[in-house]
Design brief:
Elements (H helix, E strand, L loop, with lengths): L1 H10 L1 E4 L3 E4 L5 H5 L4 H8 L3 H9 L3 E5 L3 H8 L15 E5 L3 H8 L4 E5 L13 E4 L4 E4 L11 H14 L6 H20 L3 E2 L5 E4 H6 L4 H13 L3 E2 L1
Parallel strand pairs: 3-5, 3-6, 4-5, 9-10
Antiparallel strand pairs: 1-2, 6-7, 8-9
Helix pairs in contact: 3-7, 7-8
């Protein structure tokens, strides 16, 4: 098994007598990554899903609690699908424990979605910006992150859009994720329209230029934090 694994890792292919040849380039990542219960996440939390979406969008820290491991895993593994444009599944830490080693690991990371079975994690507010209590179907924003999660008209529009798409019986999971991705890309295109080229030809968004648009404070704050998450910011 190790030999086959190393062959895939190094050569991108492996062969066995019984199963023939496997080639990584023929492996459909989209199909596998989209086979997650993203619709169920939205159905469960409704409009409040926007808090999870915002945390993912702004690359913040999410902690999810459920005493049942299966329920915990199905939920956490679905979260990266909401940020399809990033294709970053490395943010998932599906099952962590409140040990010094694992806590230190999380504290060293700027962003993650981590699952815990220990209810005591709710009191460890240094570990999260958003806390998801699955059994209670509750989402809590940590006190230190309240300003960053101030809701705007943009948030409301995305929240309503997600809930409507989740209720659409004609959409399978793959199509649902695509619809959310399109909505996110629409938001990111609007953000890019605020960018200018710097001396190196890179797209940047200056806080001074952002302020010239006279957005409402909550929207300005959201756009600035989104620009930071997408690597556009320049003070």
């Amino acid at each position: 098994m190790l030999q086959l694994y190393l062959s895939v890792l190094v050569k991108g292919t492996c062969s066995t007598e019984d199963n023939g040849t496997f080639m990584v380039k023929q492996f459909d990542k989209v199909t596998i990554f989209s086979c997650v219960p993203a619709k169920d996440v939205v159905k469960l939390f409704g409009l409040e899903t926007i808090l999870i979406y915002t945390a993912l969008l702004l690359k913040k820290r999410i902690v999810v609690y459920h005493h049942n491991l299966d329920n915990l895993l199905w939920f956490v593994r679905a979260l990266p699908a909401f940020m399809w444009h990033r294709q970053d599944w490395n943010i998932i830490y599906p099952y962590m424990q409140l040990t010094n080693t694992e806590i230190s690991e999380l504290l060293s990371l700027p962003t993650y979605a981590a699952g815990f079975r220990d209810a005591a994690v709710e009191g460890r507010t240094e570990l999260y910006d958003v806390f998801v209590n699955l059994p209670a179907i509750e989402i809590t924003v940590a006190a230190h992150a309240k300003e960053m999660f101030a809701m705007t008209k943009t948030h409301k529009e995305i929240a309503v859009f997600m809930t409507r798409q989740a209720e659409n019986a004609d959409l399978n999971e793959k199509s649902f994720i695509k619809e959310i991705a399109n909505k996110t890309n629409e938001l990111l295109r609007s953000l890019r329209n605020l960018a200018v080229k710097n001396e190196f030809g890179q797209d940047v968004i200056k806080l001074s230029d952002l302020k010239k648009n006279k957005f409402a404070p909550a929207l300005e704050n959201f756009l600035w934090n989104l620009a930071a998450a997408e690597g556009y910011t320049h003070i």
